[in-house]
Amino acid sequence: MWTAQLFADDETAPLKTRMRVGMALAEYEHPTGYVPEAVTKLVVHPGAASADRLAVAIAVAHRDPKAGVGPLCSIASDPLVQAGHRAQAIEMLEQSDSTKAQEMRALQTRLPSSREAREQQREAAERAKHEEVARRKRETPEAVTGRLDAQIEEIVNSLRIRDADDGLGGRLDDHLAETDSQGVAQDIVDIFDAVCDEDIDASIRLLATLTRIRYGIGVEAALDESVSDDPDGGVIPRLTQEGLETYAKERAEHSWTIWREVVEEHGWDDEDRIGEVERKDEEITWEVRDLLLRKAGDHLRALEHHLTWKTWPALLDAAEERKFAAALGHLATARLLAEEAASAEVLWKGTMARSYYFDPLSMPWPRDFWLVLEEWRHGATGR
User: Fold this and answer.
1) In 3D, which of 338, 247, 333 has the Cα closest to residue 296?
2) What pLDDT sits at residue 382?
3) Largest CA distance in the chain
4) Distance CA 189, CA 275 (A)
């Protein structure tokens, strides 16, 4: 039985002989409900004679009416089968499943003619033949090389900045100028999305693999070399809260010193010296606040510029030059820049919300200035 099924399923054997073996298998007393797969395939074989296909299906139905429903439906629904043979299958089907028989009878009006079905079969066979020829052409060395080149180019292009004119940060410069905190926050999110996607690592590693297949062992293969956690740490702009506070103190001291030198050279602007100090204090406070906001914004701009115009191009250059370990190193740098940008955004927002104040009496002053400043302070405290 096993040998008979193998023979019936053998595409190299004569089809007429296979159909006779299939008939024997169909008539064999199999367990209820079981139809050998080889028999099912022969019933639907488009190259077999219509009468032979019907005979095998009827043989199954005679032995086991329920098991014969499937083969009979296959005959009744196939336009390649002659109309008379389809009608016989439906009559046989009526004896075991009248509902299915009714469905098959209704289907007949929607089936194409045998000629149309044969034409469709011929066209399908031609398409399959052309596809096989095309597949074989695709497997030629030249075709494989061409596909590899196309895949490599596609991956490299996927690493490029989506809009190089805007940079990775989108409209960061405009949003900083407008003190648009929501816009800046979204720009930072865009930077993270652009450089922290895990697919980038996978793309670089896939690029290395494809390039090695394409060009051979001469391509750098050291992707498993350890990449420093901070490969370009020395060139990443840094700014901290302490750094901002130091800068604020330096700028305030500088402004008060300039004012003192002007007064020493030209005298007081006003007989109301306390009022002049008050006005200068307000002026310097606002000036320093603006300078701090500008410094925090410039730091964000510097990070985005470094990322867009230095680190990312270096990553692309390394990938195109097949220096994939270096490309991963530049990717690590890009992510450090993105992290620094997130910290810098917090500093920038804090600078907008916070009032920086510098006490001019924390500086050394000549005695006459000191006395005026002391009086001003006591007056301000009293108010």
Assistant:
1) 247
2) 46
3) 125
4) 47
